[in-house]
Amino acid sequence: MNHKAWISLYGLLIRTSIRSRMQYKFNFILASFLAALIQISEFLMVAIVLHKFGAIQGWSMYEIGYLFAVMILSKTLYRTLADEVHHLEKYLVTGDLDQLLTRPMPVLLALMPQNFRIMLGEVLQGGFLLIWSLGGMMAAGQTGWEAIPQSLYIIVTGSIILFSIGLATATLGFWTTRISELQNITEDAAGTAVRYPLTLYPKWMSTLLLTLLPVGFVNYVPSLYILRGELGPWVFAAAAAAAGISLALSLRFWKYGITKYQSAGS
């Protein structure tokens, strides 16, 4: 099958999963509301501190809100399209991955749309923060309308970076089986760290967040140019390069790792 056929098949699997989930509309609405509430409460706590004590390392409330928004929306895009990559452990523990191996399609493509979910709460919360933060900075003359397409661009490249990190972490499960604790570091902790300026952290940590776990290219590095005019427009090429290199390396690692897979029943 060619790439177009694989994409069509992926879309069909997503539509099937959505129809299955929408049979329980109340659960979907409640989960979306709770997700939005959790996300917004975290930023509100930061906003209260900023309102009382001022900027963090020279970053205003709007700028911190922007970092939050881009990270939330990038992660939401990744987890919407490939959430089961993050939950590979359950397939390894139960042996359910065997069922995907028997399908006449790439295993990763079969895995990604499983239990597809629309993360409405995260979209609403991230979208609100993005509109609020950009609106405030535009009103103050800090940024212009060009920040909107630029932000959408880095949300896409950011989602690719986060997916690549998630895929590489999940691939380690072919050797270790249990990966949830590692995901707490590579995905959750790293993603939380770059909701704030990297200048807050020790040099070794900021270097780690720009190299081995390049989450700094999701929001922080591009925001230096978009919001502050620092560095230069080359940051968009750098974000794309980080996304492309991360994706290529993680896919190669996945292809190698899956050859080491041993069924839970073997």
Can you tell me about this structure?
This protein has 13 helices and no strands. With 266 residues, the protein is mainly α. The chain has one domain. The longest helix has 29 residues. 36% of the residues are buried. This is ABC transporter permease.
What are the SSEs and their pairings?
Blueprint: H1 3-21, H2 25-53, H3 61-86, H4 88-94, H5 97-101, H6 107-111, H7 120-139, H8 147-171, H9 173-176, H10 180-193, H11 203-208, H12 220-226, H13 234-258
Helix pairs in contact: 2-3, 2-7, 3-7, 3-8, 8-10, 8-13
Summarize the structure.
This protein has 266 residues and is mainly alpha-helical. Helix content is 72%, strand content 0%.
List the keywords:
transmembrane helix; single chain; mainly alpha; membrane; 72% helix; ABC transporter permease; 13 helices; ABC-2_transporter-like; transmembrane; 0% strand
Structural class: mainly alpha
What is the 3D form? globular
Helix percent reads over 70%
Question: In angstroms, what is the radius of gyration?
Answer: 19 Å
- Tally the helices: 13
Name the average pLDDT: 84
Transmembrane segments: 28-50, 56-73, 118-140, 152-175, 208-227, 233-254
Protein name: ABC transporter permease
InterPro entries: ABC-2_transporter-like
Keywords: Membrane, Transmembrane, Transmembrane helix
